[in-house]
Amino acid sequence: MSIQNTALLTDQYELTMVAAALRQPVAHRQCTFEVFARRLPDGRRYGVVAGTGRLLDELEHFRFGDDELAVVSRFLDPDTVDWLREYRFGGEIDGYREGELYFPGSPILTVRAGFAEGVLLETLVLSILNHDSAIASAAARMVSAAGVRPIIEMGSRRTHERAAVASARAAYLAGVAATSNLEAARTYGVPSAGTAAHAFTLGFTGPDGPDEKAAFAAQIEALGVGTTLLVDTYDITQGVANAIEVAGPELGAVRIDSGDLGVLARKVREQLDDLGAPDTKIVVSGDLDEYAIASLRAEPVDTYGVGTSLVTGSGAPTAGMVYKLVEVDGVPVAKRASHKESRGGAKSAARAARATGTIVEEIVYRAAEPVPTVDGLRVRPLQIPLVRDGTPVADLPTLEDGRRHLADALVSLPWEGLGLSHGDPAVPTRYQLS
Amino acid sequence: MSIQNTALLTDQYELTMVAAALRQPVAHRQCTFEVFARRLPDGRRYGVVAGTGRLLDELEHFRFGDDELAVVSRFLDPDTVDWLREYRFGGEIDGYREGELYFPGSPILTVRAGFAEGVLLETLVLSILNHDSAIASAAARMVSAAGVRPIIEMGSRRTHERAAVASARAAYLAGVAATSNLEAARTYGVPSAGTAAHAFTLGFTGPDGPDEKAAFAAQIEALGVGTTLLVDTYDITQGVANAIEVAGPELGAVRIDSGDLGVLARKVREQLDDLGAPDTKIVVSGDLDEYAIASLRAEPVDTYGVGTSLVTGSGAPTAGMVYKLVEVDGVPVAKRASHKESRGGAKSAARAARATGTIVEEIVYRAAEPVPTVDGLRVRPLQIPLVRDGTPVADLPTLEDGRRHLADALVSLPWEGLGLSHGDPAVPTRYQLS
Fold it and tell me: Does Phosphoprotein show up as a keyword for this record (chains A, B) (predicted)?
């Protein structure tokens, strides 16, 4: 999928602020904007950064061509329109890499640019990071709950058709094995997978009634015996018997999409073994979330198909990150009004870990200071350069890099941080800003 | 925004089902697929159909070109690839119009086509309708709660960047007055609006400290005194005083984005009146949802800015609609396995209302039967033709038509149906299928 122009994927006020600023010295003052989350969603122990790669792609398409200028000319003065015509982001961006864990206050992305140049990116930056991080954060918990068993992401139908593509990417970053979404396969190289729907079996209904065996035979003829047959359209026990009768014991897998999945998995496993098909796997799906996945740990399930809960962030569909101006020409700035605390000044962050690798704290420190040291702990700086002079730096981590990075990062969590139960962030955030 | 190719915005299994079907007579059997929701989200009284217009636009771009065929060739046989190369949906679609209320079981969309032709659309249809209807359904409750006061949708930063555009459209359909999203203004003609961010005021911090008045003066110079000034960056009372000092009593509005919005609105209203600015309006924003909006009914608020809760469906980010094969060559079909009840056979629906206009029940009946009559009630059929021979019919209702339709439809609900409290659907669904 080629990326379209992204300049209007923004809030009108970003542009009117630019218009108001351009008449003043503020427009060109050197500013630092920071992206962070004030808190994690409802009892979550960690968040997962995702979307940075997509953001850098879309940033290159954030240009005001004639069509975009015609729209903004409705409410902007000609000088501002001329400025936008020439707009290319020319500043610097640092940030957490994709697949990095984050905690409340982590400075996930830092944009350094003139005021007008930087304020303009707020909406696009937040849309992408808030969406993708919400999905990756939920997916990582599901992957943890599933242990060594693979998850197939199949939620495209439960979210906006383009959000579905980004969701598949974020889920893959988080360790999900494959997606049903073909655009994600094309655009991001995510492995794709699929089974069959009840409609397929129902379609073989003729004047004489249903014919599940004909449906199974047709699927095997087209896709081979390694395929996954959906066995719960009519009676599951009969469905399994039909599947093995038609496919033989080499059948790849059966899928169960409804009912008490634990009970059914056990029954079906026993039946498959009795039928001499011990290698035929069991795929379960149907309203699974991280808790349902965990509850199936002791059951003979081989693969999970997860849809709705994954693409909707399992109760937290947005990461709640904000984009805040924190420094103007070297002077720290911060909103002072109640309830929305923020800390002025450009910041960076590092994570301290024991020699075992287990992390202990997130340290947020002044960007101008060196990486802090902590006695007895290893301290790893978290931000990497992403954009210089408006251009993405060379050799940025790939999606696969991020996927490996997250897998390692999850191992570094204190054990209670991987639990599904609600609680505090897995490690505290310590501000070293004096 | 021009629409890109949509053929890969789909699940792989739709295509493998086509491949398996194409070798069998089933591929060309005349089928009816229906879209419906088994239930409304968690205690909601009604749903709002949205997305149909977008679906018809995207349907025209559901074509397999060389790029798309290269992707699906990885797992499909050459005959199927050839069939996809020629694929144009050539069937019929009927459905509820956008802005129509729906209830559990309402046949929101009906697709009639050969099996392969129809099954291929499942993912795209559901992605669009599930997303857009979830947003419109949440937005309609907020609009009801706001009464005559306008709502500005400003949630783009809290959802996927393209979902944001669809959300703005769905919110407008539901009666929201304007959006901050400029792509929605361009693509769908939704009125756009905006205020300013704290960053703007903070940007005017100089070596001598903050200068809120300079920020306000700059905004007024660029946008005129009709603009909305954000007054809660530092101290709200001082902010309001600064705003009127700089703008005079002709100032359009002030915005409050944090704190106890009810208390603050009262204080600010009093202050504005005392300053001789009785016509300066008050815009409130900050984590508003339908309940918070309702709680501000008695407060002197003029406009609500709503973000996160709107674009995430206020707890129900997907409408949970399904796309089910219900009839094959005139034979009703239905899944029989537990927990996911469905009713076979092509269906249509009508809504019965008293002479006063108040609706009484949703009647789902066999599509082949005439519209049912109910003694003493007026019965209105709900499906309209949307596509014939693969082409959208002429003079389909516009987005504005849908917006008016919904406004009328909400008035037709029994009074308890407009309440925000959890409960049963506002009217029961009666199946007349014998």
Answer: yes
